[in-house]
Amino acid sequence: MTDGPVSKPARVLIAADKFKGSLTATQVAERVTAGLRQVAPEVAVETLPVADGGDGTVAAAVAAGFERHETRVTGPLGDPVTAAYALRDGTAVLEMAEASGLQHLPEGVFAPLTATTYGSGELLRAALDAGARTIVFGVGGSATTDGGAGMLAALGARFLDADGKPVGPGGGGLRDLATADLSGLDPRLAGTEIVLASDVDNPLTGPQGAPAVYGPQKGAGPEDVDVLDAALAHYATVLGAAVGPRAAALALSPGAGAAGGIGYGALVGLGAAFRPGIEVMLDVLGFAPALARATLVITGEGSLDEQTLHGKAPAGVAAAARAQGIEVIAVCGRLTLPPEALGRAGIRRAYALTHLEPDPARCMAQAGPLLERLAAGIARDFLSRAEPS
C-alpha cells in the first residue's frame, strides 16, 4: 500500500499501551488525540487505553470504566504495601506486580531467594471479598521466583518442612518443602473463573524456565538461578504428591513460568486458565464494539521491536483490526522492526519519537510534546481529507 489519506476516516480509535518510563496509556491517548486535532479537528476520536496483562493493566481497566479499589497487602520483602485492583459487575482485573512487583523494591535491592508472592494472594482475596466472581489475573514485572507458593499460602494452602513447620518465604524456602496441603484453599475459588493473563509462555523450570530466563532481572546470580530451578522442580514434585500427575504436566504448560512461576501456582492451585494477556484485556475492555465504530486504529507502545510480535498489546490490536479490514497505524518511542515485519503484523506504518529526537534521554523527557507532533503528522498523512462525522 502507499501512504495517503484513507477514504472517509470518520472515526479514529486510539488503542495504545503505555510508553514505559514516559507516558501512561491514558496519557498516550490524550497526546495522540491532541496532535490529530491540530490538523484534523473535525475527525471523531475514541480512546481505549490497552494493556497486555503486565503493568498498566489495572489502569487500563479503570480508564475503561472499572472502579479502582486499594488494599494493604504484604509486599515482596514482607513489608506492607498498597495495591490496587479494578472491579466492575463482578469482574476484577488484578496485576500481581501491584502486590509483588519489582516496583516495591528499594532501588538496587533484590531478594531473589526470599521475595514472596504472599501479597498477591491477599490481593486475590480482597477481590473475592469485594464480590468478584471472574478474575483476570495479569502477571508480569514480579520481584519473585516462588512458584506462587506465597500466593497460595495467603489463600489457605500449607507448605511444610519435614518438622511440620511452614517453609521460609520465597523460592529459596521451597528447598525445605516436604508436604503441600491445598485442602484449606479459600472455597470461593472453586466458584470463581480465574484467567491467567500473560504474554509469557515459558515453562516453570529448565533452560527456558522462570529462574533461568527471568531470575537475573530480579538479582539472581548463576548460583541463585541453579538453587531456584532445583527448588521449583522440587516444589512441582511435592505438589504432584498432593494433587496428582497434573502438577507435572502443568509445570510444562505455557504460562507456568510467568512472573517467577506464579503462573504455575495459579494453574495448579487456583484452576486458572491461561490466555494471552492482550486477548483477555481486549475482551474485558470492550475492544470489539469500539473497533466496530472505527475506520482507522492507532496503537503503540514504548518500543516496537521483536518482542512486540510475540503477544504484546500493539500486535494484538493490529491482529483484531486486520481481521475486520481496518487500517492500523502505530506510534512508539523507538522502532526496530522493518516495514515488512510491521506489515506482517497488520501495521501499515509506524511513527517513532526517536525520528524526531534521537537522543534517548531527551526523547523520554519530551515524550508528550513529541508524540503530539507525531500524531499531527499522522493526521496530515492519513486524515487531511477527512470529512466531518
CATH class of the largest domain: Alpha Beta
Q: Enumerate how many helices there are, as a single number.
A: 16
- Total domains, how many? 2
Strand line-up across the major sheet: 3-4-5-6-9-10
Helix-and-strand structural type? alpha/beta
Strand content bin: 15-25%
Task: Give structural notes.
This protein has 389 residues and is α/β, with parallel strands linked by helices. The chain contains 16 helices and 13 strands. The model has no long low-confidence stretch (mean pLDDT 95). Helix 1 packs across helix 16. A hairpin with a 2-residue loop joins strand 4 and strand 5 (91-95). Helices cover 38% and strands 19% of the residues. The chain has helices spanning 25-39, 57-63, 96-100, 118-129, 149-154, 170-173, 210-214, 222-243, 246-251, 258-269, 277-285, 287-292, 313-323, 339-344, 360-365, 367-383; strands at 11-14, 44-47, 67-74, 80-88, 91-95, 134-138, 158-160, 179-181, 193-198, 273-276, 296-304, 327-335, 349-352. The protein folds into 2 domains: 11-48 and 286-383, Glycerate kinase, domain 1 (Rossmann fold), CATH 3.40.50.10350; 57-278, Alpha-Beta Complex (Glycerate kinase, domain 2).
